[in-house]
Amino acid sequence: MSKPSPISGFPEWAPPQRMIEQYVIGRIQRTFELYGFAPLETRSVEPLDQLLRKGETSKEVYLVRRLQEDPGGPTGDDALGLHFDLTVPFARYVLENAGKLQFPFRRYQIQKVWRGERPQEGRYREFLQADIDIVDRDTLPAHYEAELPLVIGDALSGLPIPPIVIQVNNRKVSEGFYRGVGLTDPDAALRAVDKLDKIGPDKVAALLVETAGATEAQAKACLALAEISAPDGSFADAVRALGVEHPLLDEGLAELVTVVETAAAHSPGLCVADLRIARGLDYYTGTVYETQLRGYERFGSICSGGRYDNLATAGSATFPGVGISIGVTRLLGLLFGSGELNVSRSVPTCVLVALADEEHRPASDRIAAKLRRRGIATEVSPSAAKYGRQIRFAERRGIPYVWFPGADGAVDEVKDIRSGEQVPATPDEWTPPVEDLRPLVS
Amino acid sequence: MSKPSPISGFPEWAPPQRMIEQYVIGRIQRTFELYGFAPLETRSVEPLDQLLRKGETSKEVYLVRRLQEDPGGPTGDDALGLHFDLTVPFARYVLENAGKLQFPFRRYQIQKVWRGERPQEGRYREFLQADIDIVDRDTLPAHYEAELPLVIGDALSGLPIPPIVIQVNNRKVSEGFYRGVGLTDPDAALRAVDKLDKIGPDKVAALLVETAGATEAQAKACLALAEISAPDGSFADAVRALGVEHPLLDEGLAELVTVVETAAAHSPGLCVADLRIARGLDYYTGTVYETQLRGYERFGSICSGGRYDNLATAGSATFPGVGISIGVTRLLGLLFGSGELNVSRSVPTCVLVALADEEHRPASDRIAAKLRRRGIATEVSPSAAKYGRQIRFAERRGIPYVWFPGADGAVDEVKDIRSGEQVPATPDEWTPPVEDLRPLVS
């Protein structure tokens, strides 16, 4: 075998980075559980026809098949693909298991997803997402749309990362406004406005005229709407000042005011109403969310989602939902790239038990076993090299303590190899300072 | 969308089962870390040619390609497949990153793998494995082969599952013995003996004659070897009593005695030498492990591995390793099937905050926020239904406590809905009994 090389778009963190990732996932998971979300994992594959229901993402799907497929036989698969998000599999799971679930159903799901996108900074082909969703049967109360950003704010605020801002909009505001100004193809208008960040207002105006049948005045109104942004309910006054009327607009404004005002009361500065947020076309029907990491705005949203009323629907059964997804790999990729996150050592090990000679390995093993039973991560030295080399083994990994078994019944000693301090110790009693017990993320 | 149905071989646990799985994974992970194994995750895909290096597994590989592959373009992939185990990707990772790693390198890896096997009880197409491996540069000390089963014993012994027995053999014993009796194709002999459990001794004897060129007497000797089993070093005497001599046999016996005696000293009853264990052909060159769950022997090994000297080799660089892998999904599938594992509730939630009317939602939200800040998982009632209905909402999910906000400045009360006991409480002070704080696995 020749030396292998990485595959573009499929990141692999080194163990210290993986420790940071586990810390971040643990914090997110713990927060989700504090809000009562139950854990779920769905299979990695879905029937291809389900993945292709939404045209926008179809070009990114990975197809999966057995190398020696056996189409005529009893194990012949229908075509399968890897899931490209966790929302489509969740909606399928809800439909499949509706009879066994309690509604409203709150679940979190932290899993890899795959997209055949062109790899670039912040964009991967295999990446980890952490999702929460709430679905209900038939109808879903609007207060859940206000709750989800607060959960995300809590989950991310405890981490050593830059602050976030969640930008919120509501599809009903955009669609109601577009209809209110007299546009008949609000989807085309949404698609055009969605390009605002990329191509700027002049080209969006031209696109509105060209693809959405807008007049110059209508295009100008759409752009004026997209420019509105506020950290509180005052955005609604700015919208009304544009003089457009539509029942759907009123409904959307009321919902969006609730989301923004609830957030302002609970976590000032966390959410802003930003009426340019569109979230592609996807499956959203109400509130939509995007999230900027301050200082990393150019890499796009690290946490997105929204309300979907029609994703989980079979016959007369319908399960409207709202969800939001943290792009864990994107978030970590950006922060690893800028050296924002560090861990105090490259292994979990707190103590290395030294070895006088190979005959004494069982004695060192017993010391290690005692320390482990007391929750102290411990390794025994790989070989009975000179003590200087054994200490360097620990040093290179950041292991803070080396344990020297006492010869011939003498008491053991433990050395803090950072300070050089060495003290007598017994494995049934010695305890490291709590900050040394596990690798620290900062 | 019509009601979807499951895909055979791709299990999905319900949230209560997923909570049990998380508990099991957490316990395994914590034990691996106590032994100083660092975490690693590799990408899910490997170049297909790497996955096909071992003929035995090639028929099980899943091929992955972008639906709209673009072979001429800059993003054209080489053929990729999903990994079928975690050892082959780990060996590749070590070769790719050898310059950045510290050796000996201890890592654990808990990830999904995929195999296109025919699904049946205990066999899946997508399943979770939990691996530990130790690799070193150039040479790997034999004491690691004795350490790994002890880690597994520790990891699984703390779980509410039946006891395990790790069966250990050594490829050198088998190969040395076969050569010692005069067989020239030890691989063919190993393949034949590997079928002992499936086809019985008579057919294995016939196969040895037919495929490994054995005489009746040689076949009989091979079967006599395979029948030897002991919980301590006495197995070596039984082997020597068969009167076969070979240097490789001596080497293997010495290694296997160390593994079994170390285990007997540390964890009596955990390991037995069982000379019929072959582990297919794969990549093993020394010690091999299989593990039986008592009472579930018919479903095969739930934890397997061995030593591999030649898996991670590129040019003159060689990284011998030893590893062992817990089949988490198989283990859980068996135990879920027999109802051996239970969890005390179906959601993480400990407290449901009741809602007098929708106007008081912010007040109930504030109570929930205070409880969460103190580590108590809390939901607010989805609607201001009658209190009886809100209590039933909690009951159906196994949520033990319902919190009633005091009206008009009166003190709040909290009800244990199992006993009916209701007491005054404030969200800054009330604490549930520790056994109610999180769902309990038993």
Produce a short descriptive summary:
Chain A is α+β, with helices and mostly antiparallel strands and 442 residues long. The first copy, chain A, is built from 14 helices and 19 strands.
The amount of helix of chain A comes to: 25-40%
E-strand count of chain A: 19
Return Rg of chain A in Å.
28 Å
Strand content of chain A: 15-25%
* Amino- and carboxy-terminal Cα gap of chain A: 39 Å
* The CATH architecture of the largest domain in chain A: 2-Layer Sandwich
Task: Name the overall outline of chain A.
Answer: elongated
State the strand order across the main sheet of chain A.
Answer: 1-5-6-14-11-10-7-9-8
Largest interface chains and counts: A-B, 95 and 95 residues
Average of per-residue pLDDT values of chain A: 93
Q: What is the CATH top level name of the largest domain in chain A?
A: Alpha Beta
Quaternary organization: homodimer
What's the CATH H-level homologous superfamily of the largest domain in chain A? Bira Bifunctional Protein, Domain 2
Q: Give the count of helical stretches of chain A.
A: 14
Q: How many discrete structural domains of chain A?
A: 3
Global structural class of chain A: alpha+beta
CATH topology of the largest domain in chain A: BirA Bifunctional Protein, domain 2
For the largest beta-sheet of chain A, the strand count, sense and barrel status come to:
9 strands, mixed
Write the layout of secondary structure elements.
2 copies of one chain form a homodimer.
Chain A: H1 15-34, E1 38-39, E2 45-47, H2 48-51, E3 62-66, E4 80-82, H3 87-97, E5 105-114, E6 126-135, H4 143-157, E7 164-170, H5 171-180, H6 186-193, H7 196-211, H8 216-226, E8 229-230, H9 234-240, H10 247-266, E9 271-274, E10 287-293, E11 303-308, E12 313-314, E13 317-318, E14 321-327, H11 328-337, E15 351-353, H12 361-373, E16 378-380, H13 387-397, E17 401-404, E18 412-416, E19 422-425, H14 434-437
Parallel strand pairs in A: 1-5, 7-9, 15-16, 15-17
Antiparallel strand pairs in A: 2-4, 3-4, 5-6, 6-14, 7-10, 8-9, 10-11, 11-14, 12-13, 17-18, 18-19
Helix pairs in contact in A: 1-4, 4-10, 5-6, 5-10, 6-7, 7-8
